[in-house]
UniProtKB/TrEMBL annotation:
Hydrolase in keyword set: yes
Keywords: Hydrolase
PANTHER family according to UniProt: PHOSPHOGLYCOLATE PHOSPHATASE
InterPro entries in the cross-refs: HAD-like_hydrolase_sf, HAD-like_sf, HAD_2, HAD_sf
GO MF assignments: phosphoglycolate phosphatase activity
Species the sequence originates in: Leptolyngbya iicbica LK
One Gene Ontology cellular component annotation held by this UniProt entry: cytosol
Origin superkingdom: Bacteria
GO biological process entries: DNA repair
Name of the molecule in the record: HAD family hydrolase
């Protein structure tokens, strides 16, 4: 898969009409988990802790569970290809009520402070943010994570001043569920407020790493960029017909700031 649509080698300076997909003053709506934060370690360790706790709980009842812990590569492959959590639990050696017990532990674990600290900045994000800032393009984060969590993360990496606004959730458990209707509602609120503040969002794009991000952008007729560095694979994302698929935020910004020929 190519990250960016290949361009003609013809010098753009020799062509009369050229334009940019994103120009100075425009707004880029961007998801947080996946495009900006690498959450793979946190999600995998949440899985491991939930599996271990379930096994220990049954051991206290004198019941030995034949647990098979997946490797991180196996686990993340399943997550990227939208394998249900029930199937992941089944592959891990659980069945019946054991699966229910395992799944009930995840929401409480995934937002523990000790696990949140495992999130890492995706490669190339700092340069991508700087590129957008230097071009006068505003970054507005639309996420199902709590805004306070996002802001803490951005401060940790000295990136908070590069973001114009954060639209997040009040509920800490909303992000893991990643329901499309929630992302649509968040993006709708973000667009409405940006317009009230006097910013034109008609040329905006939506960038994200899940079907929820793509569907939200499409709901408001925004072109969408799907990133494969997060929790969904390229093959899965293409099924939702995004405008373009890129590897990460860095390649997405390159794509969005390249000149295109006006016909």
């Amino acid at each position: 898969m190519q990250d960016v649509v290949s361009r003609s080698a013809t010098s753009l300076s020799s062509i009369a009409g050229t334009s940019l997909k994103l120009t100075a003053g425009s707004t880029l709506f961007c998801d947080f988990d996946g495009p900006i934060a690498d959450v793979s370690d946190r999600y995998y360790h949440t899985y491991c802790l939930a599996l271990k706790a379930t096994q220990a709980d049954y051991a206290r009842r004198q019941m030995a569970l034949p647990v098979r812990r997946l490797t991180k590569a196996q686990f993340w492959y399943m997550k990227q290809n939208r394998v249900p959590d029930t199937t992941i639990a089944d592959w891990s050696g659980l069945s019946g009520h054991q699966i229910d017990d395992f799944l009930q532990r995840i929401p409480a674990l995934v937002n523990q402070p000790t696990l949140l600290h495992q999130d890492q900045l995706q490669p190339g994000v700092r340069a991508a943010f700087a590129n957008l800032r230097d071009r006068g393009i505003r970054i507005v984060i639309v996420t199902l994570r709590q805004s306070s969590q996002v802001l803490d993360f951005l401060h940790q990496y000295d990136l908070a001043t590069m973001v114009s606004q954060i639209y997040g959730s009040d509920d800490a458990e909303t992000a893991y569920a990643n329901r499309t209707e929630h992302k649509i509602a968040h993006l709708q609120a973000a667009i409405a407020e940006q317009n009230r503040l006097g910013f034109d969002t008609r040329q905006s794009w939506m960038v994200g790493d899940t079907e929820a991000d793509i569907s939200a952008g499409q709901a408001f007729d925004l072109p969408t960029l799907a990133l494969t560095c997060g929790i969904r694979s390229a093959l899965y994302l293409k099924g939702f017909s995004p405008t373009e698929v890129c590897r990460d935020l860095s390649s997405a910004v390159t794509y969005l700031t390249q000149s295109v020929i006006s016909q």
